[in-house]
Amino acid sequence: MNYDIKCPVCDTKDYIDIVELQKYPISNLGLSNTKKQSLEADVFDMNICICQNCTHIYNRIPVRLDYQQNNTTYFTNAIQKKYIKEFTADFMNKYKVQNQKILEIGSGDTLFLKEISQASNDCVGYEPSFTRDFKEGGVIIMSRYFNPLHDINDNFDWIVLRHILEHFDTPYIFLKDIINHLITKGFNSKFLIEVPNIQPSLDGLRVNDFIHEHISHFSIYSLKYLLQRLNLNIIEMFTTQENENIVAICEMDKDYLNIYHKSKLYKDNFEHIIVKLQEDFNRIRTENNTIVIWGAEGRGAGFIKIVKELFYGDEYIIDSDKSKFGKFIPAIGLQISSYKNLIDKKIDSIIITTALGKDNILQEIKENNIDVKNIYCLSQFGLNLI
Ligand SMILES: [Zn+2]
Q1: What spacing in Å lies between the alpha carbon of 314 and ligand 1's midpoint?
Q2: Does one domain contain both 224 and 91?
């Protein structure tokens, strides 16, 4: 049965159909044994469309296929074998892939892993079309679908997905699950991704390139869009086999990981600083008779909101900007005065409400000879005496 999907890359449903192919059999999964069987084979429609948001090309009414231990007719010919040999050698040379841990999802005929294992790499492959698990040299093959939630128990140096993503109706979710799992476990794997390039099929009007097995038809742009949406940093992207494949080498973005890992810390720290500012203000309030708060709008008003419940009612709210004098702080109800009111008065304390304007305010205090005992300024530690 066909089912209706959103764009596998960007998750929107804004498309233009480019070709409708009616009653097509499944091309590579299960040949018929008799003519009768052949004529009774299931056929399904394909609606190939272009996403108007990310330009990804996909079959918006795919058929759910099972690749588990079936009579697949995928065949690796001599040219493809030569290509894999050269491709693997280039990859190992360029990225110094030696004594490393490699995971391949959908390892197919295992040619890639066998080549890679020659350089003392430990290789694990998941391939549902095999009938049993096996080990050969440095290669372990698990004869089942890869499960992102259960099968990443090691810090693999590389996760390889060659000619896999085009088979998924939700490649974003599949990769996102893998990446989330890596982050949770504290692993940091690089990715080698290879997909067929749809561009030559489009340019050559190769209508028979659209097959049920391929739900997604990636271009350089749509693959890039998918990887960037996943916060992956693309180290390089190139095409191979006369532009027929796109290869992407990527890694998890360090800036993204840095902030992601600090999410909980930021939450704790902001909760802490609010309490600390209130505690510090309370202490300053009890230690000083006069309190002047300098900086009344924007960031200043934000600070006043945090400590307002602790005010005695005789605090001065001051600003450097004369257009604010006499006005009231929104939602707080306190009036802003001129700093000139402080001249010739003995002031116990001034609280500068913005670290960004601190130097400017200190200059004004000095130029106007304002006599103050203690000056405090907001910092990440609370209200600091300066
Ligand atoms: Zn899209």
Answers
A1: 60
A2: yes
> Is the per-residue pLDDT at 99 higher than 90?
yes
Residues within 5 Å of ion ligand 1 by Cβ?
7, 9-10, 51, 53-54, 56
Q: Which pTM value belongs to this model?
A: 0.82
Residues 372 and 247 in one domain: no
Distance (angstroms) between ligand 1 centre and the Cα of 281 equals 52
For residue 51, the Cα-to-chain-centroid distance in whole angstroms is 21
Could you tell me the distance, in angstroms and rounded to a whole number, from the CA of residue 56 to the centre of ligand 1?
5
pLDDT of residue 2: 65
Contacts (Cβ under 8 Å, ≥6 apart) of 79? none
Q: Which residues constitute the domain of residue 110? A: 78-205+217-261
Same domain, 256 and 343: no
Dihedral angle sign, alpha carbons of residues 345, 346, 352, 357: positive
Cα angle: 265, vertex 267, 268; to 5 degrees: 65
pLDDT of residue 72: 56
User: How many A from CA of 10 to the centre of ligand 1?
Assistant: 4
> 246 CA to middle of ligand 1, Å?
18
Each residue's pLDDT tens digit, 238-280: 999 999 999 999 999 999 999 999 999 999 999 999 999 999 9
Residues 248 and 273 occupy one common structural domain: no
Dihedral over Cα of 80, 192, 68, 167: its sign: negative
Q: Tell me the average pLDDT across 192-203.
A: 97
Determine the Cα–Cα distance for residues 341 and 347; give it in Å rounded to an integer: 11
Q: Are residues 244 and 152 in the same domain?
A: yes
Question: In whole angstroms, what is the distance from residue 92 CA to residue 365 CA?
Answer: 65
Do 362 and 287 reside in the same domain of the chain? Answer: yes
Separation of 58 CA from ligand 1 center, angstroms?
9
- Do 318 and 245 fall within a single domain? no
Q: Residue 335: its pLDDT value, please?
A: 87
Q: How many domains does the chain have?
A: 2
Residue 331 and residue 193 share a domain: no
CATH code: domain of residue 155: 3.40.50.150
Report the separation in Å between the CA atom of 229 and the middle of ligand 1, taken as the mean of its atom positions.
Answer: 11
CA of 67 relative to ligand 1 center, distance in Å: 26
- The alpha carbon of 209 and the centre of ligand 1 are apart by a number of angstroms equal to 20
Whether 84 maps to a domain, the answer reads yes
